[in-house]
Amino acid sequence: MEIAPITLAPNAARRVATIAAKQGKPALLRLSVEGGGCSGFQYKFELAEAPDSDDAVSETDGVRLVVDAVSLDLVSGCVVDYVESLGGSAFQVSNPQAASGCGCGSSFSI
Asked: Going by CATH, does the domain composed of 7-104 fall within 2.40.100.10?
């Protein structure tokens, strides 16, 4: 079975580039999935120095999004965006595999 790619939206790419420049790090965002959260799985974001050998890599405007092989099974086909609203601003994952999510948008179930 072919795995659908992951996508980094332009808004998210701009935000990662800004954060990375302030911290003096490469514009490389790692998305991983961990057990926990109110719906079973939760998304974790962090800046990375370099992709690992088994990472899936997506690039938008010179900014890379990397996902490890285990997490990729849970987020295949997702789009990572950066959303600003009255409630705050955050990276947001639109995951077509998620059967349900929580109100805060940071956890999901399959």
From this structure: no
